[in-house]
């Protein structure tokens, strides 16, 4: 079991895992909230026009729901590359309905060069709307995440607010 690790996914790892996974479980972490406060110069935006992707911010008393993925150690080479541009591995406790385990997630802390920080929802949505990078449009990132959260019956006011603004302003139907 030493070579197996639980990784908590709160963003694209919920709906896109392009690496071998042994097991996937619904999970949550305590004291954190997901926010579109990290710049994406490499996936959903460009160096000259970054997109906005999720990171976790400390939020005492909050619960962030997502998925936990059980992976072998060699997956971290892929994950470390995928989660570049400011993300760092962070150890935490991952909770399941039937217990808890030690795990890892990727967080883009406020001191990283790509951190954008808080902004009004309308401004975040406007930046997301115009951003596109090698991994596709920033809007698709938000819509895929919102759909995956709904399929898991996970409520997230921040994600759904940004999604609603994108749909309203763009006339997005999906």
The dominant shape is globular
- Tally of discrete structural domains: 1
Give me the CATH fold name.
Answer: Hypothetical upf0131 protein ytfp
CATH superfamily: Gamma-glutamyl cyclotransferase-like
Residue share in β-strands: 35-45%
The largest sheet has its strands arranged as 1-3-2
Can you count the beta strands? Answer: 7
Q: Termini, distance in Å?
A: 41 Å
Order of helices and strands: EHEEHEEHEEHH
User: From the coordinates shown, what is the CATH architecture?
Assistant: Roll
Largest sheet: 3 strands, antiparallel
Compute the CA-based radius of gyration. 15 Å
Task: Itemize the secondary structure elements and their pairings.
Elements: E1 4-9, H1 12-15, E2 23-40, E3 51-72, H2 75-82, E4 88-96, E5 99-107, H3 121-130, E6 132-133, E7 136-137, H4 138-151, H5 157-170
Antiparallel strand pairs: 1-3, 2-3, 4-5, 6-7
Helix pairs in contact: 3-5, 4-5
Keywords, please?
globular; 174 residues; Hypothetical upf0131 protein ytfp; single chain; two-stranded antiparallel ribbon; alpha+beta
Summarize the structure in words.
The protein is an alpha+beta fold and 174 residues long. The protein has a single domain (4-170), classed as Hypothetical upf0131 protein ytfp, CATH 3.10.490.10. The protein is built from five helices and seven strands; from the N terminus they run βαββαββαββαα. The chain has helices spanning 12-15, 75-82, 121-130, 138-151, 157-170, and strands spanning 4-9, 23-40, 51-72, 88-96, 99-107, 132-133, 136-137. Strands 1-3-2 form a three-stranded antiparallel beta sheet. The protein has a two-stranded antiparallel sheet with strand order 4-5. A two-stranded antiparallel ribbon has the order 6-7. β4 and β5 form a beta hairpin. The longest helix is centred in the last third of the chain and has 14 residues, at 138-151. 37% of the residues are buried. The model has no long low-confidence stretch (mean pLDDT 94).
């Amino acid at each position: 079991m030493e070579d197996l690790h639980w990784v908590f996914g709160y963003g694209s790892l919920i709906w896109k895992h392009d690496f071998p996974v042994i097991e996937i479980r619904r999970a949550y972490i305590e004291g954190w909230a997901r926010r579109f406060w990290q710049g994406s110069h490499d996936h959903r935006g460009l160096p000259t026009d970054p997109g906005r992707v999720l990171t976790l911010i400390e939020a005492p008393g909050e619960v962030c729901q997502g998925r936990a993925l059980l992976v072998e150690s060699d997956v971290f080479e892929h994950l470390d590359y995928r989660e570049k541009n400011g993300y760092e591995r962070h150890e935490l406790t991952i909770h399941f309905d039937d217990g808890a385990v030690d795990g890892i997630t990727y967080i883009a802390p406020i001191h990283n060069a790509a951190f954008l920080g808080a902004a009004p929802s309308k401004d975040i949505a406007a930046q997301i709307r115009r951003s596109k990078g090698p991994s596709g449009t920033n809007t698709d990132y938000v819509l895929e995440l919102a759909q995956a959260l709904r399929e898991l019956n996970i409520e997230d006011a921040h994600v759904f607010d940004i999604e609603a603004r994108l749909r309203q302003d763009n006339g997005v139907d999906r």
